[in-house]
Amino acid sequence: MIQKNKLLNFEGTVIYQNDEWFKFSLDSVLLANFVTLRLSDKKIMDLCTGNAPIPMLLSYKTKACIYGIELQKEIFDLGMKSIIDSNMSGRITLINDNIKNVYSKFSSDMFDVVLCNPPYFKVNDNSYLTENKIKCIARHEIEVLLDDVFAASRYLLRNGGTFAMVHRPDRFVEIIDKMRKYGLEPKKVQFVYPKSDLAANMLLIEGVKNGKGGLKVLPPLVVHNNDGSYKDYIKNYFQN
Amino acid sequence: MIQKNKLLNFEGTVIYQNDEWFKFSLDSVLLANFVTLRLSDKKIMDLCTGNAPIPMLLSYKTKACIYGIELQKEIFDLGMKSIIDSNMSGRITLINDNIKNVYSKFSSDMFDVVLCNPPYFKVNDNSYLTENKIKCIARHEIEVLLDDVFAASRYLLRNGGTFAMVHRPDRFVEIIDKMRKYGLEPKKVQFVYPKSDLAANMLLIEGVKNGKGGLKVLPPLVVHNNDGSYKDYIKNYFQN
After folding, report:
1. What's the gap in Å between the CA of A47 and the closest CA on chain B?
2. Whole-model pTM?
């Protein structure tokens, strides 16, 4: 069923989601807070935007035009509904398509920033068994592969433009490898640890198109206190 | 001048060092605690061993024969003196040579574990100006490059053997790249943060010769409390 959630603590913002399909989660919130924005940014693209939490969060942090692409019609519709109800349609443009089709929809080298919270998991024999189709496509590399994300980002970004992504640490070596292959030089990375004594379960990475080497590893982002409550700086991400 | 330091809290262990040349530091202690050892390990090699802190620390954790190679005669001599005074010459063998010469000194595929705390810095025009020659060679890639470390490690390690290194995060992308090139697949990495709100200034990385992909990012290693004192788990590294 469709739920209407008040998104974070921003007045007038609603987000529609469907628990059976896809929920926006901490990943998107962290990515929106991680990415480097500039006052001069004119165009921002969010690939695999889901129900558009990243464009909505970014709309409070930038005056740039924000675009989002989502393949799945059901999830795209939720995003559109959220944007209309939040009166953000003047700021955010959603497109219902596969990111493999950006080449015909957009000119190259036009975007200052490209973000992505892609499907995390490689497809295996069990991928289809445990989840419904919509959730499965959102979470597994069925329609969109890492290579597609990097290729589209390279095409869309201007020289010196910023690419930012959230993903899982077990794919880190592959991510580094492929970002460089596509000329998106890794510049900063932040590892997200559920608790201070647990292995990282998420990573935030930013690269610059045709940038120079030299990676900075930002301070650890620990999500929970030992008692399970959110750290104060995580709580602050949910407030205006 | 030569100082005689009691190394950590192990009875009977002394380490000789010279403040003007080279001091063993937290890096070596962290690497010795990070590396995965097995009961079945027979031979361990420490490349760029300096005054041999890593072999001495490992001697408490393994029954394997431990080898160390150090290029600089002055630092090698300190290591030998430490090992003799600590009655460890039956456990540790030091060699005064460049790691580029392991090919003539050792058969291939003989070691279960190879470690390295290499020179961290690329040579630039200022490298020679700020430091004396001995310290300079210990800290800069003058005699030993990353490629030399990986090539020697690949040669020495048996199939499935463990490579472990401490280095700096700004070289991380290059390290990942080259480890894979030399067939030392990265398996676990731990970032070391001076304080919980500061960027990482060290990384510990372990790979397996001809291993499969899949990287684990271990919990953050934060060295100091906010008041500047060492974290308790760091203090424990200095005790038996």
Report:
1. 25
2. 0.86
